Amino acid sequence: MITYLEAIREAQKKALESDPRVYIYGQDIAAFGGAFKATKNLAATFPGRVIDSPISEDAMIGSAIGAALQGMRPVIEMQFADFSTVGFNQIVNQAATMFWRTGEPCPITIRLPSGGTPGSGPFHSQNLEALYAHYPGLIILTPATVEDAYSMLLEAIALNDPVIFCEHKYLYYHLKAEALPSAALPVGKARIARAGRDATVVTYSAMLHEALAAAEELAADGWEIEVIDLRSVKPLDTDTVLASVARTGRVLAVGEAWPWGGVTAEVLARIATDGFNLLDAPPMRLNSKDTPVPFHPNLWGTHRPTASTISNALRDLLRL
Amino acid sequence: MLHLAEAPSRAGKTSDFPETYRRAYRWMLLARVAEEKIASLFRGGRITGGVFLGKGQEAISVATGLALKQGDIFAPLIRDQAGRLAFGESLHDFTLTYLGARSGPMRGRDGNVHRGRPREGLLPMISHLGAMISVVNGMLIAHRFNGKAGTVGAASLGDGATSTGAFHESLNQAAVEKLPLVLVVTNNQYAYSTPNERQFACSDLVEKAIGYGVSGHSIDGTCLEDCMNGIGEAVRQARAGHGPQLVVASNLRLAGHGEHDDAHYVSTHLKNLPLGRDCLENAQQKLLQNGWAEAPTLELWARECAVQVDEAVAYALREPAPDPATEDWCAISHRHLADGNNAAI
Predict the structure, then answer these.
(1) Residue B135 contacts A where some CB pair is shorter than 8 Å
(2) In this complex, which of A72, A98, A102 lies closest to B142 when CB atoms are compared?
(3) pLDDT of A239-289, one tens digit each?
(4) Between chains, do B135 and A69 touch, taking CB under 8 Å as contact?
(5) B112 CB near a chain A CB, below 8 Å?
(6) Helix B17-43 vs helix B91-98: angle between axes, to the nearest 10 degrees?
(7) Residue A301 sits in a domain of what CATH number?
(8) Which residues of A belong to the active site?
(9) CATH assignment of B17-319?
């Protein structure tokens, strides 16, 4: 068995093995192996290529951009996605504009350990995919499975554009697969994680598993719920989403991030503008509450969508 | 018709100080004339966007550009026209970008001082101050990975940029990694309209060097010779493997922040200090006093610069502007991964 976290480590190991241009830079990632051990033993295996950085997110990203301009393939580990806001300027103004302004590609991969876990609180739980997706020039990946964590990270490192790789901390240890994949869907393609005909749930990252549990619960009552795993939020595979809505006529978009201007809002906007005539009911969405992410598990468990709130929302949607 | 003189060649090909000084002076003069021309086009309504002059800062800038060699990296800021020319940027890049030509290095997608050619080691600045330093660091880190020894990266800053988090993070990063980085800080007394006393509280910015564990150099930004010696030494130290070098040059900005700014806030007291002297006039006097150039030669150089600038402006004015109908509206290099929503808009 291999966990989601081990898949991320294995992908980095494979990238370091197969491409001399790859190096990893982040806080506590060398001898210590990273706050979550995503780079455990890599520094010893690849001397000089897994490098501890000072606590300087802006300079970490800025230096990665410079190295990329000189042909390297840097992978930057943010200790937590939340801290990437300190390097926000370099990501959205330097990396994201480089190709458009100069024609020079900027192949950097920024790993964001994202999302809530019990007890993590307001500053170690954030989901920032919508923030980065707002800016032109970035590719935003949100793997929900062990297989995607592996294959999409390898693809991210191989891409010539800056990639924000949102890996979910809740899945690090919880999610296991039999083996690493030998083939994968390419970046930019959504996946139908469960086929159905009565309603579509569009989701990504850790919420995929909550949505699948909700679909299973509704199956006991005879409802067949289709669940789409977006895999990448930018680009967003609108075609797969619209094709599903054409089959089901009902859609619920679910995201762990905050609601305002987020991925669920974008998904529903596209369905409303490009697929309004496909709908048999008003489109719905479910997100975290519009407050900082709470510390206490009692509060946290209610703050974000869960299988139970998703199934309640689906029952409402099916009654409409 | 005036005979166009051969453009001054790149630095580092001679150890003859007067010859290097003459070359530096000619780049400074060309920068001054070129910027004055763009400023007059701006006043005539021919320039879209801002115009930022390096007037009073040419000595510092040219000394930086001249100290660098092919293969080095330069991240200029807004007042670095002289240094850009000395580093090897063509005058056409300057006029094509200011005039928004499609054939310029930024193709009308970015303008004025936001131009560069990363492949040639010249970085196009973003507006967020201090943000280019860590990019230079990363290029130097890549050189280290690739075994490209002996290269140097220089970044220009103003006094205002020393207050940013990016300055702190990147200078510390360079020190930790012992990178051959030369930070040239021009303290021209004002960041836009903010005077030194509202910008920092140390008595001299060069004091910051010790806190970062890097070497510090103070120079007189109004004196070309001091700039060439001081920045030249800093670059030599960095090239020799002695880690980052912080150069602090003092001068007074002899223009507004941009041409939209009348700089009424600049103190008369400062203008009357030696600090307020024009480095170009100082250099000209030095050439004459030392017998390194005669007055007619200086006049010839000025005419040559004017011809060169007129040619570059005329060339850029003839070049077509970008066309929104044929523009490639794709912000990433992998076209198949462009988000499909562009079509819907």
Answers:
(1) yes
(2) A72
(3) 999 999 999 999 999 999 999 999 999 999 999 999 999 999 999 999 999
(4) yes
(5) no
(6) 20
(7) 3.40.50.920
(8) 124
(9) 3.40.50.970
